[in-house]
What does this fold into?
Amino acid sequence: MDHLFAPPLDPEGVGPAAVAPYALRKVEASLLARGIEDVVVVDPQNLSRVVGPDTKVLGLTAHDPLGLSPVSTKLTMLFGGGPCWNAVYFEELGQQIRALRRRHRFAVIAGGPGIWQMSYERPPWVDLVYMGEAERDFPRLVQEALRGAFLPPVVQGRPPTLEEIPPIVHPSRMGEVQITRGCPRGCEFCSITPERYRTVPWSQIEQEIRVNQRAGEFNVELITDDVLLYGAQKLRTQHKAVVGLFENLKAAGARQIGFAHISAPAVRESPETVRQMGDIAGWPQSRGMTPVVGLETGSVRIFKKYMPAKAYPFKPLEWPQTILEATEILNDAGIDPCYTMTIGFPDETDEDVQQTIALVQDLIDRGLRAFLFPLPVIPISTSRIRGNPMPQLERLPLKYWDLLGVCWHYDMRMARALLPSLVGRMKSSLARQTIALFVERLTEHVDRVFEEFRQTHGRSADRYRSINLAGAWGTLRSLGWLLWGIVNGRPGGSPAGPRYLTAPTS
It folds into this structure.
């Protein structure tokens, strides 16, 4: 798994990481700005080479430390039932840190996008769980730790002003720069809701781009909860601000421009803005943009209860039409959205899910391009539904399996449609044909697996409880089982091996 999914960037490195997650670079910049100069960002593989008797504080960032994110939860429920690799990697990191603490005395502070998971279960080797944004309060806590002061087990950081947020000083991975923080839409299931909305000024964005360019990275990945919120006023898109940002990015030397999130209502409100973004960035030619977009539900009742402001400036009753119009606008701009759905609210009924199925089917029948992912509702501790139970297969509405089948069937169609662009650049015609045949068979096999989920209302997930990817032998046997199913045209029998780990999630 290390070689396939987590190869070290610099296997021989003994010092600072060449690139790092953007959030960690922000923490680093905040410490340096407060006069804490002896700061090193290091890959986990090189941790033991850097930590020593002079180390006083070890900070770590975590995206999905216990495997409780919506994607991880969904896949572990369907395939295996045990912990996902995210959680296993984090446990291995914990073992490494515990061993280092036995030799050296230092405090451990954990934060990051997935730190909410540790508010449910704080590992004993973590002294302080830091929730929220770092710039305002985190440096003070580090200074206290350096003095040997007592650290509280959990701290909620206060949101900083724009003036309190310093630019990064060392390169981020994939040329990441942040253009907005927070989201004012207020969805009850979202962890971003408590964060104050802010737009980062161009001067700081340009400064961070230059940091990455000096390291040889000329692509720019925009970190934002909605790219159309850049410069927004009261949730209304400011066309000049967004288009001006993209023009500035190109003028600054950005070769490719990507972004993580966009919202359907803003797209519907500002189709010309989206079109000009696509023209400037060249997305219609590359067909490479697949941002995450919240479709959430087709049920107006569920929508009104849990996310009433998400449709603004439109009304909740217009949500299905907003999704359909936004998808068409995005497709015209060369964007194929990855639509996520939140399924499994305690009061959600089969009728609610059927309305979501109807919306998805309407999107498919219109020939629109999108990837569709129905995910379970997670009670994130920083959201307003933190008191809800964790999702379980037996508690999901029965119609969920129909929705899952429709979505994955279309996802496989989308994957096959993109296949020519994926293999078209390969020089060997034999290699192209071989890869194309394998992908075709693989997508057909995955399609059959999810059809079986639909027909059995999830009971066929039991056959995957024994998947074992913990070692080379288990992985080979599981791959053999998968290939057997591909060749024979059906899911096949239960793979050999004890119940253990599910595949990693991205």
